[in-house]
């Protein structure tokens, strides 16, 4: 895809910025604790934390999302689709798993294309048509092909470190160091917000490329658009407790499940015949219409893990015109 270098550039720049933030945090903590060591010590600590997150990230995702890997005998259709998409993508076939949550969705994770994993949730099974599900899997396959799942996993840990640092020191005070603990807490909180905005930005950018990647693998734009509509609708109708349970991993999903009720009000306008899906002709009408995003939605998008859903489907409509 022409322009994919922009994705890689943004991902690597984000990784470098996050690494610098983590290095500063490690140095500040070390100084606060009284360690009088040189920069090399904190560099090693930063590299160690990054390595741990990179190495154990996939296992943490599997455990938090309760993923159980399934064999070909258990899920022959899933294996057939994933194998076909992997062949078209030119990468090794990822492992396939099922996440035991009723919130309909799918996600990809792993350290590299050779260590790729794709999981679908229990809630997505039976909700989508064959073509819609394959378009979703094509989206996830593209995440693995673009290497953005690994980078997303690594950089996501930095805001978490900053947050816990801030919460543990913000209200602390001792006679020896005065307000030093509170100052570190404020700095940690500032870095948390900066890091979180950066993670959200990277997460949104990679979704556009994965959508395009799914089309490159032979899936049709209307099938992915219809799948997104159904996933939004499914999340909007999921129990609040289930949404909260998976909210920590929503950056890996196809859509922001926490914002599903706002998204459904936008996407329902596209379902002209009210059949619960988005057809090719409905997507074409969107392409020929002007999409205006309100100021409030633009602001909410900055705080979301995913692009505004109407803008995203509009992009698919434009791709449809070029296929």
Structure description:
By secondary structure, the chain is mainly α. It has one domain (4-322). It is built from 13 helices and four strands. It has helices at residues 4-32, 39-64, 76-89, 130-145, 148-155, 157-169, 180-216, 221-236, 240-246, 260-267, 280-287, 295-302, 309-322; strands at residues 67-69, 95-99, 106-110, 116-121. The chain has a four-stranded mixed β-sheet, with helices on both faces. A hairpin with a 5-residue loop joins strand 3 and strand 4 (116-121). It is globular, with a radius of gyration of 21 Å. The two termini are 14 Å apart. 44% of the residues are buried. The mean pLDDT is 85.
Give a summary of the structure in a few sentences.
With 323 residues, the protein is mainly alpha-helical. It has 13 helices and 4 strands. Helix 1 packs parallel to helix 6 (157-169).
Please compute the radius of gyration using only Cα atoms: 21 Å
Strand content: 5-15%
Spans where pLDDT lies below 50 across 5 or more residues: none
End-to-end distance: 14 Å
Q: Write the H/E string, N to C.
A: HHEHEEEHHHHHHHHHH
Strand order of the largest sheet: 1-2-4-3
What is the domain tally?
1
Helix/strand-derived category reads mainly alpha
Question: Which outline best applies?
Answer: globular
Q: Mean of the pLDDT scores? A: 85
Q: Report the count of strand segments.
A: 4
Number of helices, counting only DSSP H or I runs of 4 residues or more: 13
User: Sheet with the most strands?
Assistant: 4 strands, mixed
Give the helix proportion (percent range): 55-70%
């Amino acid at each position: 895809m022409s322009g994919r270098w922009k994705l890689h550039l943004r991902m690597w720049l984000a990784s470098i910025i996050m690494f610098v933030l983590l290095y500063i945090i490690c140095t500040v903590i070390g100084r606060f604790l009284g360690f009088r060591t040189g920069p090399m010590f904190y560099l090693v600590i930063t590299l160690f934390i990054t390595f741990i997150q990179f190495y154990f990230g996939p296992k943490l995702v599997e455990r938090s999302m309760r993923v159980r890997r399934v064999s070909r005998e258990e899920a022959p259709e899933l294996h057939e689709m994933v194998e076909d998409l992997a062949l078209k993508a030119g990468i090794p076939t990822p492992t396939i798993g099922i996440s035991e949550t009723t919130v309909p969705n799918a996600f990809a994770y792993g350290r590299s294309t050779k260590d790729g994993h794709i999981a679908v949730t229990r809630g997505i099974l039976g909700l989508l048509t064959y073509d819609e599900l394959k378009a979703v899997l094509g989206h996830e396959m593209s995440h693995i092909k673009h290497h953005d799942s690994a980078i997303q996993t690594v950089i996501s840990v930095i805001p978490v470190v900053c947050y816990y640092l801030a919460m543990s020191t913000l209200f602390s005070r001792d006679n020896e160091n005065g307000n030093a603990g509170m100052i570190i807490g404020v700095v940690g909180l500032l870095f948390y917000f900066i890091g979180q905005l950066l993670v959200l930005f990277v997460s949104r950018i990679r979704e556009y490329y994965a959508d395009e990647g799914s089309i490159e693998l032979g899936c049709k734009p209307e099938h992915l658009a219809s799948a997104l509509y159904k996933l939004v609708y499914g999340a909007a109708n999921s129990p609040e407790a289930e949404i909260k349970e998976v909210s920590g991993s929503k950056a890996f999903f196809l859509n922001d499940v926490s914002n599903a009720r706002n998204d459904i009000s936008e996407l329902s306008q596209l379902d002209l015949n009210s059949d619960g899906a988005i057809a090719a002709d409905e997507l074409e009408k969107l392409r020929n219409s002007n999409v205006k995003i309100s100021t409030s939605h633009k602001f909410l998008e900055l705080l979301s893990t995913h692009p505004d859903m109407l803008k995203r489907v509009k992009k698919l409509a434009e791709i449809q015109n070029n296929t």
